Amino acid sequence: MTESNGFTGWKSRRRRANVDGGRMHRHEVKVSPEEEAQLLALAEKHRVTIPRLLIEAALNEDSESPSERRDQFMQLSQLQRLIGTVANNINQIARHANSTGVIPAEAAASIAHARRVIIRIDRQLAELAGR
Q1: According to the model, what pLDDT value does residue 91 have?
Q2: Rounded CA gap, 1 and 8, in Å?
Q3: How does pLDDT run across 46-91, given as a tens digit for each residue?
Q4: For residue 53, how many other CB atoms are within 10 A of its CB?
Q5: Confidence check: pLDDT of 3 > 60
Q6: Contact predicate 64/74, CB 8 Å
Q7: What is the mean pLDDT of the chain?
Q8: Torsion angle of alpha carbons 33, 37, 42, 44, nearest 10°?
Q9: Angle at 57 between CA 7 and CA 8, to 5 degrees
């Protein structure tokens, strides 16, 4: 799941991915002890190295942080698990209805729940597309 900016998902490495030919240019940035403490805290919060934090902050046009991307990935993963559970539940209801000829009373509630989950997924995808 590597994106063009080197982010590889919520289980990503702290360092950026290697690039063909390596990185030829180097930039030195001097910071005060207070700035260093802030950078260390931010890098730890986002679980990245300070160089990666600085590069992503400077080059990311939509100013989205690694932790924001990780949060969105986690939300989509949770929705994916939820829709799997809902689909399994509806499949069990359909199997029961097909074998007995009786539609269980909870079928309507399960279908309504599935619709709500699908709406949540649509909203999350629309939010991601609007970046």
Answers
A1: 92
A2: 6
A3: 888 888 888 888 887 666 666 677 777 788 888 888 888 888 988 9
A4: 21
A5: no
A6: no
A7: 80
A8: 130
A9: 5
**10: which residues sit within 8 A by CB, 6+ positions away?**
70, 73, 74, 77
DSSP single-letter state for residue 48: S
DSSP 96-127: HHHHHS---TTHHHHHHHHHHHHHHHHHHHHH
CA 37 to chain centre: 27
Residue 74, C-beta contacts closer than 8 angstroms, at least 6 positions apart: 10
How far apart CA 84 and CA 116 sit, in angstroms, is 14
Q: Which two tokens stand for residue 79?
A: 């929705």
CB 71 within 8 A of CB 127: no
User: How many CA within 13 A on the CB side of residue 122?
Assistant: 6
> What pLDDT score was predicted for residue 6?
42
d(CA 100, CA 2): 48
pLDDT the model gives residue 66: 66
